[in-house]
Amino acid sequence: MKKLLGFILFAALIALAIWAFLHFKGFGGFGKDSGKSNKNDTSVSETTKPEETTTAEDKQLESAEITVSGNDYLYNNEKLTLDKLAAEISKLDKDAEITITSDDTAAKNTVDELTDKLEELGYNNFKKAEK
Q: What are 105-124's pLDDT values in tens digits?
């Protein structure tokens, strides 16, 4: 009887040791927390570059919308002359997408002057859209 009780106690201790080892430490990658990283982990992790965020200012610099109404140029809710508009557009990247919107009152020569000026400045990525 003592041998049986000793054997059961010994088996229980072995089972408890195996359970504790697998539960807390893991055995060869097996265990409850084997996939999680520990706070005391001393392994070297990869560093990644932070993702670049695009703000409203960045989008504004990537594109511009110019409205031609009559003989006037409207850009950023301001009425500008062709020279002032050219100075504002020059701040943009040469690959910026420029949309020229003209209404029914827009003079054809005003739109043509604008497209000529854009080509002269090196902005070839523009498109005309009519309202």
A: 888 898 899 999 999 989 88
